[in-house]
Specification:
Strand content: 25-35%
Helix content: 25-40%
Number of domains: 3
CATH topology of the largest domain: Rossmann fold
Radius of gyration: 23 Å
CATH class of the largest domain: Alpha Beta
Bound molecules: adenosine-5'-triphosphate, magnesium ion
Length: 502
């Protein structure tokens, strides 16, 4: 197949970091090419170089055999290369339509707004995507926001589409939909660069896979030459994968009870309705469900981020729904939120500071009335080692870390104070295999020490592996509990779609 784009010996450094050392690979016309590599391997940086967001220190790009130099993403877009970023670039207060129109500005489409609207609607319908054009972006799920980014590129008729971990924010159903869209684009002769940490997906969709390790391209393999194990081995190289074992059975003591809880969302609709749940000491309780069925409201109600309309929350038998004990109880709950960049970190603070956001008042981080720099630094050194965080130069803002490494910072911070309850939304999204395993290890060990976990995930493999019980949520209600040792995927799947209850 003719080569669309070639990258040769790309190198990119930032102050104190070699993000890309020496990367070469090529994209053929009409192929789906996957980039695989651990957190911080350089995948996003490479894509940012490719689209002209960053200038490489050295190396070259050839488009249709001709050398090209992009000095901004506008240049690459003009030549038909578009990217959906790991962190979206949308205006939250504007509608879906407005966000798409802004992106199309400067494109000679010669259509009045009404015609443009119907063309956008056509594209949405052509690919079978569900998206309401007049909804403000802040009301949409992260998955829906990603569709907007994709539609922007589809409207521009790009030849090469780059998707940086698109499925990390999608439900399995949405991911299937996305794969259908990608296959269709491929049939139209378009090329796609796909980034994902999920091996199952990589196996399903890739024509070729290029593996990146610590800023260098290791190898490129064609479909038929690889399987999941081979890819994992190449990607991990000599790095160790943490090992863990599930802890002993949990006790019968109830640490948290939720009774008839109701929560309304910003649009006045019920996110949780008559919701009941019981969490036991040392238990890892999975919440399975298709995203958008109340998971986020549940996590927010438990962590004090949303108002409870009716119902009760009991902590160790005491009603804390409206009592003043609530805030101190909530302060002791660890929370791994879904939207990491928005509510999980303080982006402009350093790694060291982000790691103590929850406990900066603790004695061990103080020296009289002052903060102890050395204690804060030592804490960071310890966490960086435990969680294998790939950190930049000391003191640089945490937002410069790679997506997966930001996620590790949040988890390291939340789990550092040995919380009694952990509420985790999709904690391993965006983590490489080794890091995901480490998070499971920490949760399992925490359970052994009496920590109770509510693990919200759509990944049934993850729930089966680590949970003691699985509760299924559908349309804001608890459908029932399943036992991971005896319930089949099909049974849980049916419960998730609301067709049967246990
Ligand atoms: N603007 C920047 N300034 C400083 N360092 C950066 C910048 N962008 C990326 N880095 C560093 O470059 C390295 C590669 O990061 P990159 O985001 O490309 O990784 P990735 O492979 O996409 O990882 P992930 O799977 O976690 O998304 C990391 O060490 C990161 O901290
Ligand atoms: Mg990345």
């Amino acid at each position: 197949m003719p080569k669309l784009l070639q990258l040769q010996h790309i190198r990119k450094t930032f102050p104190g970091v070699v993000a890309l050392d020496d990367v070469s690979f090529s994209i053929a016309e009409g192929e789906i090419h996957t980039l695989l590599g651990e957190n911080g391997a350089g995948k996003s940086t490479l894509m940012n170089v490719l689209t002209g967001f960053y200038a490489p220190d050295s190396g070259s790009l050839l488009l249709d055999g001709q050398p090209v130099r992009f000095s901004s993403p506008r240049d690459s877009l003009a030549l038909g290369i578009g990217m959906v970023h790991q962190h979206f670039m949308l205006v939250a207060a504007h509608s879906v339509l407005e966000n798409i129109l802004v992106a199309l500005q400067g494109v000679p489409l010669f259509f009045p707004r009404r015609q443009l609207r119907s063309r956008i609607e056509q594209t949405i319908a052509e690919f079978g995507i569900e998206l309401e054009l007049d909804t403000p972006v802040w009301q949409l799920s992260i998955g829906a926001q990603q569709w907007i980014e994709l539609i922007k590129l589809l409207m521009r008729d790009c030849r090469l589409l780059i998707l940086d971990e698109p499925t990390a924010v999608l439900t399995p159903q949405e991911a299937d939909k996305l794969f259908q869209v990608l296959q269709r684009l491929k049939q139209q002769g378009k090329s796609i660069i796909f980034i994902s940490h999920k091996m199952r997906e990589v196996m399903e969709i890739s024509d070729r896979v290029t593996i990146l390790k610590k800023g260098s391209s290791v190898t490129t393999l064609e479909a038929g030459e690889f399987n999941q194990n081979k890819l994992a081995t190449l990607m991990i190289g000599g790095d160790r994968i943490p090992e863990w074992q599930k802890s002993l059975p949990f006790s019968d003591e109830l640490v948290l009870e939720i009774e008839n809880l109701a929560v309304r969302n910003d649009r006045g609709l019920a996110d949780l309705d008559n919701f009941n749940l019981q969490l036991k000491k040392g238990e890892i309780l999975g919440i399975a469900g298709i995203a958008g069925n109340g998971q986020k409201a549940l996590a927010e109600a438990l962590t004090g981020l949303t108002k409870v309309e009716s119902g009760r929350v009991l902590a160790n038998g005491e009603d804390i729904t409206r009592s003043c004990a609530r805030s101190s109880y909530i302060a002791g709950i660890a929370h791994i939120p879904e939207d990491r960049k928005a509510i999980g970190i303080a982006p402009d603070l350093s790694l060291d500071e982000n790691l103590i956001l929850k406990n900066f008042r603790a004695k061990r981080f103080r020296h009289g009335v002052f903060q102890s720099r050395s204690a804060i630094r030592n804490n960071a050194i310890e966490k960086v080692d435990q969680f294998a965080i790939k950190a930049g130069p000391q003191g640089s803002p945490v937002r410069l870390l790679s997506g997966g490494n930001i996620q590790k910072v949040i988890i390291a911070r939340e789990l550092s104070e040995q919380p009694t309850v952990l509420v985790a939304l999709y904690p391993t999204r965006g983590l490489d295999i080794g890091s995901a395993e480490y998070v499971h290890k920490v949760i399992a060990e925490g359970a052994g020490n009496g920590m109770s976990t509510i693990l919200i995930s759509e990944d049934l493999d993850e729930l089966y592996k680590i949970c003691d019980r699985i509760a299924v949520i559908f349309r804001g209600r608890l459908i029932g509990y399943a036992d991971p040792t005896s319930s089949s995927r099909e049974e849980i799947g049916l419960m998730m779609s609301g067709e049967v209850s246990a």
